[in-house]
Amino acid sequence: MGQREQWGTRFGFIMAAVGSAVGLGNIWRFPYMAADNGGGIFFLCYLFALLTAGIPIMILEFGIGHKFRGGAPLTFARMNRNWEWLGWWQVLVCFFIAVYYVVVIAWAISYVGFSITQAWGDAPKDFFFGKFLKLTGGPFELGGINTQILLPLILAWAVTFISIYTGVKAGIERVAKVLIPVLFFMVVFIAIRGVTLPGAAAGLNFLFEPDFSRLLDYKVWTAAYGQIFFDLSICFAIMITYASYLPKKSDIVNNAFTTCLTNCSFSLLAGMAVFSILGHMAFTQGVAVKEVASAGVGLAFITFPAAISTLGSAAPLFGVLFFLALTFAGITSLISINEAAIAAFMDKFNMERKKATVIYTGTAAACSLLFATGAGLYILDIVDHFTNNFGIVFGGLLEVLLIGWLFNLKSIKDHVNPISDFKVGNWWLFSIKVVTPLVAGYTGIMTLISDLK
Ligand code: PFF
Q1: d(Cα 336, Cα 155) in Å, to the nearest integer?
Q2: Non-local CB neighbours of 362 within 8 Å, separated by 6+ positions
Q3: Which of 42, 60, 228, 246 is 20 to 30 A from 238, comparing alpha carbons?
């Protein structure tokens, strides 16, 4: 194997890392989590989680990826011969996420087209579950592959395949440098129009007004920490891999702060865009915002189409922009999650990039067909629940426990500090050793308990 590939520029690396972090999670998951967990109070908890877990783990992952120069399995193996399996665990999580995440992107691509004619008519819910997904009665009733989704699915895989096949600098970096700035402008545009609509204020109030009575509610805190892990793409191999392509002289701490803060600002912006438009819909229907705000998949593919329809002649434009934004955000994340797995195979088997890309994306694409069946949404829900709540959380918990307690954590601090302007100190060591294991452990156990009930 030749020398490890490298990013071309610092900007390119930041765009790729932000591209991974900014994903479907920011656009549909974040607004609904905030609204459901006490609005403004959720933000405070989220900011706290960002400072005590998000940024410290990002610095850790950038630091170890950069120091040990490998995908997750190789990096962990270089830290301790017995830890390679943890890297493979995280790679497995990547695989399970990728095969369903790509299908949600395929839905978004389809909805770009539907937006032009408002194909969902007056009944976006029936349209989504019935006409579009052709949802069957349950997870065991597959009902054949939905040919409508096939073309967008192939498109999403093709873009991902080409970006990774062409390499870190010529492929992944170049795609991120175009898609992320465009994505940012699209969302700013939607947000500006959104906040100037009648009724927007009620939507924003719903999102931001703090419900202080929930400050001590553990559910709000676990939601905030859970959101931070998924949101920043940490604890599932990606950021370690991306950092392994950084040049020797890279400001690790600054890069970590920039990535985290850009991602979180983007979440805020997306939240404002979505909720101001929902506020407008509630206003036109004469109901409270609470009545129209629904959760998860439903928010993006049912509630939002209905809200867009209330924009009159501007509806096609905003529909296309919103679903294109969702598509761009999703694709750059999908690229990162596949790269994390492909890099692991290249490291392990000394495989050439092109060969590894063909084998891995071919396999993942074939498996993703399962989610394009009439039972896809049911299976997606189950896989999503287990990968997020157990796969990521326990993978992250083991990562911080092993590195924090059984590895010389100070050696990573000593690696990061000389090349960074802003130095990490005791707060960082404390976060990794104490705060993050406690919250990840608590979050994992609480979800386990509520699942068993
Ligand atoms: N941070 C990403 C998001 O918010 O959607 C998390 C992610 C999910 C990254 C899926 C990559 C991916 F394939």
Answers
A1: 17
A2: none
A3: 42
Q: Is the CB of 24 under 6 A from ligand 1?
A: yes
Confidence of residue 133 (pLDDT cuts 50, 70, 90): very high
Instruction: List residues bridging with 394 in a β-sheet.
Output: none
Instruction: Give the whole-angstrom CA distance, residue 386 versus residue 398.
Output: 17
pLDDT, residue 295, reads 62
Could you give the percent of the chain with pLDDT greater than 90? 75
**Separation in Å, CA 126 to CA 145, 245, 320, 417, 452:** 19, 46, 20, 55, 32
Mutation probe of ligand 1 site: the residue of 22, 24, 180 with most atoms within 8 A of C-beta: 24
Q: How many CA atoms lie within 13 A of 277 on its CB side?
A: 30
- Give 373's strand partners: 145
ipTM, 2 dp: 0.94
What pLDDT band is residue 393 in, cutting at 50, 70 and 90?
A: confident
233 lines ligand 1 (CB under 6 A): yes
**The two three-digit tokens of residue 46, written as one number:** 């989220």
Phi, psi of 373 (to 5 degrees): -90, 175
Instruction: List, in order of start, the domains of the chain with CATH numbers.
Output: 10-452 (1.10.4160.10)
Instruction: Find the 329 Cα to ligand 1 centroid distance in Å.
Output: 9
